[in-house]
Specification:
With 463 residues, the protein is mainly beta. It is built from 5 helices and 34 strands.
């Protein structure tokens, strides 16, 4: 009993000293409709123990396999009740890392955690395990100034149309397989590593995420750079109390399915001061598809502020799957520069759900390739190499984009200012107020004028 009390006090002291931060300021001046509903996420509680990876055989020479060193160090911290695992400067090649309760993975400046390009090292029961993972854990964090690199080029298919001749030839020098049409390259039959599936189509489906937390409580990712994932970069799923602060997420602009931050049916999430430059959606809210998503509930109580998104398919995105719903989301004071679209709401029958109490304001956009604001309800997710049309529409789990309030958006140079494609059943009760859209081709493309209510919205273009 005494030992348990001592550990509890130790955890409390650690939380107050190591993780105290100004996050409460972000919850001031919230829209009245959400002010009493949003809870500030709790910070993880990490004891003040600290060990270095090198104490457990870690070697940062860019060659040595450090998988066992990470396992031993995490096990040692777990026996102490948790603490900080410090990765010093160096390049530490490793297989998957599994975090445990009350453990902080801390990367010092010039530390690089590099996932091994040997894809077989990531397989478990025929499936690829994320680079860093935690499942049903409490009080976990990844902090510091270092880099976590997913070595994604060894996993991803490449479209010929999206790369230069120099880049295409570099991929072919790795070996791999070019499709008969010459339009795609797959990392299948590589010179350096064996295949992990019988066909390149099957191997493509095995790609995994860089960092994924599932069913965890009190999660912090702070300061680090996450880059070059085999698929999505940072994926909290069904987690409660998540803070993502000051993280850089980056990969090539043409990386297939290279999402930045994907929040899946989480509760109490704060996403602040991050920089995202990726190959697919930037900051994305997901809520599962169909009946299976209902039991996990919605994305609920999400605050997204002071972030910058450069290349991405969308700066802030809901969908495509959100059958579990989206509730109490505030997005404010963010910059999108060079994204394909700015505010993107995408879904389709069998994937849709209901949005409630969504407030978006003070968004600054420039050099938007497509639409500044877009609602699309016939979205089809086509993996690389698949051109088949979306399955026939049904009336099940239709998107219900509603109760979304957008204000004070300033956009310079979008091809189209505002687009809404669908029916009044799927897009309605959307307000845009005090916005300015400078477009280059068309002010708006709206299927039904009743979908959007515009007040003091200006559309400008070249004279």
């Amino acid at each position: 009993m005494a030992k348990r009390l001592f550990l509890s006090l130790l955890y409390l002291v650690a939380a107050l000293t190591a993780w105290a931060g100004p996050y409460g300021t972000y919850y001031r001046n919230l829209p009245a409709a959400v002010a009493g509903k949003m809870a500030e996420p709790q910070l993880p509680v990490i004891p003040d123990n600290s060990i270095s990876l090198t104490e457990f055989g870690g070697v940062g020479d860019g060659v040595t396999d450090n998988t066992a060193a990470f396992q031993k160090a995490i096990s040692a911290l777990q026996k102490q009740g948790g603490g900080h695992l410090v990765v010093p400067a160096g390049i530490f090649v490793t297989g998957p890392i599994s975090l445990k309760d009350h453990i902080d993975l801390h990367l010092e400046r010039n530390a690089v955690v590099l996932l091994t390009p040997d894809r077989a090292a990531h397989l478990k029961d025929g499936k690829a395990v994320p680079g860093i993972t935690a499942s049903k854990r409490t009080d976990i964090s990844i902090t510091g100034e270092g880099i976590i690199d997913g070595n994604g080029e060894w996993w991803r298919g490449v479209k010929r149309s999206k790369v230069s001749d120099t880049e295409w030839n570099a991929f072919k020098r790795m070996g791999g397989t070019v499709t008969p049409k010459g339009d795609l390259w797959y990392p299948f039959n590589l010179k350096a590593f064996d295949n992990i599936a019988d066909t390149y189509e099957a191997q493509e489906k095995i790609r995994t995420h860089l960092v994924r937390f599932t069913d965890c409580e009190r999660v912090l990712v702070q300061g680090v750079t996450l880059q070059n994932s085999p698929k999505f970069h940072l994926v909290p799923q069904r987690c409660k109390d998540v803070i993502i602060d000051g993280v850089t997420v980056r990969c090539p602009w043409n990386a297939q399915n290279g999402d930045g931050i994907d929040i899946g049916q989480c509760k109490n999430v704060l996403i602040v001061r991050n920089t995202v430059d990726v190959g697919d959606d930037g900051i994305c809210m997901k809520g599962g598809a169909g009946a299976a998503a209902l039991k996990d509930g919605p994305c609920d109580n999400i605050l997204i502020e002071d972030n910058t998104v450069f290349h991405a398919h969308g700066g802030f995105v809901i969908g495509s799957e959100f059958s579990g719903g989206m509730v109490n989301i505030v997005v404010r004071n963010n910059t999108f520069s060079g994204t394909d679209t700015g505010l993107r709401f995408k879904s389709a029958p069998e994937r849709g759900g209901k949005t409630e109490n969504i407030w978006i304001s003070d968004i600054y956009m420039s050099d938007i390739q497509g639409e500044a604001v877009v609602f699309e309800t016939s979205y089809a997710d086509r993996p690389v190499g698949r051109d088949d049309a979306m399955a026939a529409a049904t009336e099940n789990f239709l998107p219900d984009f509603q109760d979304i309030h957008i204000a004070r958006v300033t956009c310079r140079d979008a091809r189209v200012g505002v687009k809404a494609s669908g029916t009044l059943q799927m897009i309605h009760d959307i307000t845009l107020e005090d916005c300015l859209f400078f477009y280059t081709e068309e002010a708006s493309q709206v299927d039904d004028a009743g979908m959007l209510q515009l007040k003091n919205v200006r559309f400008e273009t070249y004279r």
